[in-house]
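Hey, sorry to bother you again with one of my protein questions. I've been staring at a protein lately and its backbone has me curious. I owe you a coffee for this, so here goes:
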Amino acid sequence: MTTHVERLVQQLDDATGPSYDARAELIDMGADALPALIDGLPSLGGFGQLTAIEVFEEVGDPRCGPALIGLLNSDNPTVREWAAMALASLDVEGAAEPLRRAHRACLEHATPPDWTEPDGIRWALTELGARTPVVPPLTARLRATAADDVPRWPSAHFTDIINDLADHAQVILYSQFWQLDAGREYGIPGTTLDWELDWTAPWEHLVEESRTWSLREASEAPVGDGIFVAPSWIDRSDLHPER
């Protein structure tokens, strides 16, 4: 006989409306909902599993760790990405090595490093202390102090940051711009530039291509009081961990 909580878990797959109500009720149930949610996870589709990950994060119980690690093997890249980030958000013990394997799988499948899945996995590894981004001295010195500890830099220094990162053999993947106004933070449009790098090229070529495109972006980027830039970059070891 199907219990009420099991029916709620099944409803997580229904994106027409029941999923949202089921999600809210499962979150309200807290840790009591976890056994049924974990047991029902394999039977859910991609939408249901993504919603389940949201429930896991809201409940914040580390018992969901093994289930999240299992989702790193999902056929759905978004499920893998969300599971990776949830493992870091929940500080799940023992998650670092499964995340490293997930990152290696991205490399083996030639997933571009600026796609959201490898980006999310790198973030998770960094949050868990299993990855240390290279932050050159000038870039570290120019970083703005923020209460939420999110890395960001005054956009007026964007060109300096680009050159500092490239001079230290870092490849910038993309940059986001933020406006801080009266204690509020919100994203603002950057530039219309869009580029793709040939990830089979030598690393030195990638560094200089990234520098060139990023400097073009900086020439068109918004600048002003309260405008900050948050570039995302990788080191050679992120693309070639064996080196």
